[in-house]
Amino acid sequence: MDKPTDDLDLWRTGAEELMPMVVALRREIHKFPELGLHLPETTRRAREALAGLDVDIVESKSTSSLIVTLKGASQGPTILLRGDMDALPMPEDTDLDFKSRNEGRMHACGHDSHTAMLVGAVHLLHRHRGRLNGNVKFFFQTGEEGYAGARHVIAEGLLDAAPAPNAAFAIHISPNIPAGVIATRPGPLMAATDTIAIEITGKGGHASQPHYTLDPIPVACQIVTALQGLVTRRIEAFDPVVLSITKIESGTTQNVIPESARLLGTLRSFSEKSRATAREGIAQIAQGIAKAHGLTAQVDLAAGYPVTINDGKFVTFAQDVAVDLLGPERSITLPAPIMGAEDFSYVLQKMPGCMMFLGVAPDGVSHHHAHACHSNRMMMDEAAMASGIALHAAIAQRYLAGA
Questions:
Q1: What is the rounded CA–CA span in Å between residue 320 and residue 329?
Q2: Residue 402: its pLDDT value, please?
Q3: Does 147 participate in catalysis according to the annotation?
Q4: Distance CA 88, CA 145 (A)
């Protein structure tokens, strides 16, 4: 794409002007986190923040996601900008004045900031819609944290509704990148994920007489250890997987050998080849070890999000915009993908585009030591959101001018 003449100062200064509103909105959403596909309060706040703007708003029927459409001054292509809105089912252990008021829920992955930045981008692009050679769709998405919210909206046909987007772009914050720095890579950016559940069944009895039982606990332990051998000996080192058993459930008290044990975990991968090898190996190992000890193992592998694959050409385009907007020192290429998973992957299966990470390491804290996303102590440098707002606007304007 050729670089059109555009005034990047417009986006930088405009984003800074919007920051009081954006920060206030982010903090309100942070105080009242909601889970899943239906986020009535979060969606209401987003709608209220867009009141008075000349945009079309459509709400999903199966979720409370919003598709907000801004039409430019002339006919042209359409770009989709996405921000997710849901929180995580976990406690918040910060000393923020605006910490979660909803017990057992926290915006620990930055979706409150994603929503606020996207609202800011709507306002900024709306101010200058005469500069847009086409349309911008803003996807305020619910249910990213395990609920496949994007897939629900796609199934409803909302992303295909006219004007259908030709490309998609998303920003995800990271406390483990210096504040204001943009990071991404072409190709696989984030992993596919599968959920593992293994039920081991034996025979219970008295702890003093294990020979009369079929004890599932040592069998469960052997399976956990053997699965790590699967990763290092059956999977190619340059097409890796991460296999984590994160929960073991068994037993009721100290002198009873239980009848069963349950293992829970996740498998993450970057290719269907390694994914299939690992899935097959998990079943073989669990069932084989259990059988060797006279027990049985039921293995359930639930497929989760696919690999998030950035389009190489769009990444080059987006990095060029980031360099022009923020400076070359604030745009980096990640050396390797990240093993987390994202349901923006479903959007990128439909159209070219990319996701970028925005560094938000807290002021005075090294990004190497900052509490990561999904931590109960995760915090962020809110000032970095100005870079995210400006980048949303610059990406949209330049894409529409040059597509």
A1: 12
A2: 85
A3: no
A4: 7
Q: Which residues pair with 146 in a beta bridge?
A: none
Contacts of 377 (CB under 8 A, 6+ apart): 93, 94, 371
- Residue range 164-221, pLDDT digits in tens: 999 999 999 999 999 999 999 999 999 999 999 999 999 999 999 999 999 999 999 9
Percentage of residues in the chain having pLDDT higher than 90: 97
**Which amino acid does the sequence have at 5?**
T
Q: Which two structure tokens, joined as six digits, stand for 271?
A: 């290719």
What is the average pLDDT value for the chain, to the nearest integer? 96
**Could you tell me the pTM of the whole model?**
0.91
Give the span between the Cα atoms of 164 and 300, in whole angstroms: 38
Pick the catalytic residue from 144, 145, 259, 382.
382
Is 329 one of the annotated active-site residues of the chain? no
Query: Which one is catalytic: 305, 342, 346, 399?
Result: 305
HSE toward the beta carbon, residue 261, CA cutoff 13 A: 23
What pLDDT was estimated at residue 7? 78
Q: Rounded CA gap, 111 and 25, in Å?
A: 12
CATH architecture for the domain at 192-303: 2-Layer Sandwich (3.30)
43 vs 86: CA distance, rounded Å: 10
| Topology at the third CATH level for domain 8-190+308-402 | Aminopeptidase (3.40.630)
